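Bug report (template v2)

What were you trying to do?
Predict the complex of my protein with heme C.

What happened?
Run completed; filing so the output is reviewed.

Input:
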Amino acid sequence: MTDKPELDEHSGVYTTGHEWDGIKELNTPLPKWWLYINYISIVWAIIYCIFMPSWPGLPGMGYFKGLRNHSERANVAVALDKLQAARAANAQSLTSISLDQVENDPDLLTFAMAAGRSAFGDNCATCHGSNGIGSVGYPALNDDVWLWGGNLDEIKQTITYGIRSGHDEARFSQMPAFGRDELLSGSEISDLTELVLAMGGSDHDQSAAARATTNFEEQCSICHAEDGTGDRYQGAPNLIDSEWLFGGSRSEITETIANSRFGIMPNWEQRLQPWTIDSLAVYVHSLGGGE
Ligand code: HEC
Ligand code: HEC
């Protein structure tokens, strides 16, 4: 240790005078601007800690709430209340007029479409695909093909009560399992498969299809209609439109006839607000196939 500053000959910088084992410390202080910013930050932090929520777990008072008593949670609650209030008026008008009228009211329509689109993403897209494109067993909602009906009221009824959902008001029907319950023999079912392929315009065995016509009239036409166009009252699909809910290959059709299908659409009456269901009906109706 020496008292007088010493000039280091290698770097041209004065030393602090500290020395350990022959190693000397150069005197290179922090830039002034840096120091001032540092001091200002410390002052700012102290002021911030006094006014804003800062210290966790103080005995007897939980966290220190700060002199401003600021709370993000409270802000969110206020914002949500405002949103609810803003929606309430629209929700109220939506449920008080018919859905046809909603489609003619530009403001309400915009509101219903936005609400319907977001509710669809949250609740329906898992099964029906985004924008209602559908997949095997889950009908597309953006085309003209409807199992149960595609006008606003029919769509609303489907959403409210579901299909085979167990709700008392649910849409219900059940195609017999012709193979599993031994109503028809294996060869009758394979002949019927050829007939269904023929109806859908696919390659098929003509003589097998011809053999199946009597069985179709006796066993199938009561639901699918004699010409195969289906029956919306029973949710029985059209078999001649070459649109398949459960697949139109030979093996898929045989599977449907032998074991039948039992597509379940949940009911939403208890889970969604009436105005949300109305919005969903308007949204689904707008997807491309609304009647
Ligand atoms: C768990 C899967 C599932 C969810 C979730 C679901 N659906 Fe469905 N939905 C189905 C199935 C399966 C069918 C067809 C039932 C059948 O075979 O008849 C269906 C049928 C429908 C139909 C009738 C289509 C027609 O052709 O008549 C509409 C409309 C519909 N769903 C709308 C919705 C809406 C809106 C939501 C969201 C609130 C929703 N679905 C949620 C499975 C689902
Ligand atoms: C009691 C009414 C009923 C009878 C009888 C009936 N079906 Fe069905 N069929 C349905 C219903 C309902 C569906 C749709 C099932 C679902 O959505 O879960 C269906 C679906 C089908 C499908 C699937 C269509 C697709 O788009 O994937 C085929 C194929 C079919 N039936 C053929 C037949 C044949 C062949 C017979 C006669 C041997 C028959 N059905 C008898 C009600 C019936």
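What did the reviewer find?
Residues 123-124, 126-128, 137-139, 141, 146-149, 155, 158-159, 163, 235, 263-266, 268, 280, 284 surround heme C (ligand 1) (CB under 6 Å). Residues 75 and 123 are 28 Å apart (CA to CA).
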